[in-house]
Amino acid sequence: MIRPLAKHLVFLTAICLAAAYSATAQTFAADLQLKDGAKLDIANLYGRVFVRAEKDPRSTVTAASPAAVSADDVKMSAGKIEVLPRDRNKRIDLTVILPQRCRVRIETRDGEIAIVGNFASVEAKTTTGTITTDIPLDSVKYDLEWTQSRPRYVADFELEKVKEKSAGRFVISGRSGEKTKKKKGKDQDSESEDVPNDIQLKFSTARGIVLINVPPNEVGSDLRERPLTEAAKAIVRSGDSLLMEAIRRAAPQYYGDYLRSLPPMKRLPSLRNSSGGEPGPAAEFRTALVRVVDVQNRAVSDLNASDFVVTESGEQRPIVKVERSDAPFNLVLLLDVSGSVENYITFIRKAARAFIETVEKKDRIAIIVFNDDVKVLSGFTTDKEHLSETLDSFEAGGGTAFYDALAYTVADVLRPMKGERTAIVILSDGEDNRSFLAFDSLLGSIQESGAMIYPLFVPTGLIQEEMLGKKDIDPMRKRYMSLTKRSEGEGEKLAKISGGVFFPISRLAQINTAYEDIVKQLRGAYSITFRSMSSEKGVSPNLRIRVKRGDLFVTISSVKAAQMPADQEQTP
Question: Which phi and psi angles does 252 have, rounded to 5°?
């Protein structure tokens, strides 16, 4: 139950501020005494504002800056906090903790406004700052306005349609959830009124982004409401709930229209514990396909049966046989052919053909190119001549929907091969500017797929300089010949979560070396046959396989039933 709300806000004098913060301090803090339902105005044109509502909090305001912050920079009076730094070039960020069900009005210029918790109402105004919320959605009334641009927004529920107003304004108004009522008198049809569980949002921005209950790291790079691409449609058809939800958030109208056009979706098979019936065999044999890597994520290929330990539910199981796996791989070569590499088609084709020639003859390869959308040049085949010919069938140009292309590969192309040995080799600069999906929305599906990812990220500036044969490069141009920090971080994460290896290319000659290393890594797998007491199919959550050496790590790719080895058979 929400307690009855009071109507006024009373600030207490900051306690021992002068003693607690010196002239060189980088934060300023004050305690606040707030009553439930308080009203508060916050104005900070010099940074971001983070406001959180908590139940029975110790109410505080904290100002932080790379430079020193003092009481003179933050003006406080009854019902108002205003940032007015003596140095107008100084950025100051505010964090304010309030009781629940407060009424808050916030204004920034280009700083983010973040709103977390249960408020009665929030009015937020920015010029270009992002407005984000994490609030209860039981009953929300919203009025959103963009005064100088078309709306850019993502919400955890479907908003009403955008309406264009005079003077170039755009508005979205509506309600989410059921309007909460309470009855007056004995007559059930008597007049009703809103109870305090309703939340009212009134946001106004010139050119900013509004995110309602959607984390910024789960938002794609292109927030225009636009028709679904073929990659996005395939993701919706895949049944991958995580990726489907991300597409729905990015394009709710087109997502809903397309989903309604599809036949009823079949549920994918799932594992569950047995709830009855006769128990399975007391013991059976299973074969696990595993990959072993060292602390540098490099495959280890010189192990034998005595190096492994297999346990189920904490109990050790006897290992019957350990062999180096020679099963073929299903490899996807994912090529960036967007506008950023439009002038380097010859290089892309040459690099792709070099990879095709490097892999073993028994490995099956598929080639997918992407720019704004995806195009499958070839399905899986061992015919290297055919693969090479398909590389002449694409043209470059357009935006870069890298995340969508990777999700499409995982959810559509590799989904039928779950349990087999699969890998994705990416040749790109690692940048994205057109995807429906955000990078973080991919990670769960990548882990579940079991596919190893090998990102080869090549700066386009490096391609240009080396193709022109320049040896002495202008120092001012060198910064364009390296990857962005975002690309490097995402490449490293893709490799880490999938068991692959990240190759940041700083010289084009490194590409062929990377191909050889990838092939070596792919061969570093073991087939382990052991006696199992589990009745579960596939990879049991209770199964653990480790190597006795502490600096080596095991990834289980698949587990299948195995026949009893000949040397284990018993005579009746």
Answer: -60, -40
| CA–CA gap between residue 11 and residue 34 (Å, rounded) | 7
Write out the DSSP string of 345-406: HHHHHHHHHHHHHHS-TTSEEEEEEESSSEEEEEEEES-HHHHHHHTTS----S---HHHHH
Round to whole Å and give the CA distance between 47 and 73.
12
Same-domain check for residues 377 and 429: yes
Give the pairing type, strands 80-83 and 374-381.
unpaired
How far is 508 from 347, CA to CA, in rounded Å? 10
Residue 101 corresponds to which amino acid?
Answer: R
Would 185 be classed as within a structural domain?
Answer: no
Q: How many residues does the chain have?
A: 572
**E strand or H helix at 15, and its extent?**
none
DSSP code at position 196: T
Q: How many domains are there within the chain?
A: 4
CA gap 314, 477 in Å, rounded:
57
**C-alpha to C-alpha distance for 240 and 263, rounded to whole angstroms:** 16
* DSSP for residue 167: G
Say which amino acid occupies 420. Answer: E
Same domain, 96 and 236: no
Residue 289 located in a structural domain = yes
Residue 418 domain-assigned (yes or no) = yes
The pLDDT value recorded for residue 141 is: 96
Buried b (16+ CB within 10 A) or exposed e, 195-234: ebbbbbbbbbbbebbbbbbbeeebbbbbbeeeebbebbbb
Report the pLDDT value the prediction gives residue 179, as an integer from 0 to 100. 61
Tens of pLDDT, residues 515-527: 988 888 887 788 8
Phi, psi torsion values for 277, nearest 5 degrees: 85, 180
Q: Which tens digit of pLDDT belongs to each residue from 232-272?
A: 999 999 999 989 999 998 888 899 999 999 988 654 444 44
Give the rounded distance of the alpha carbon of 134 from its chain centre.
Answer: 17
- At residue 426, the 3 state secondary structure works out as strand
Task: For residue 543, give the DSSP letter.
Answer: E
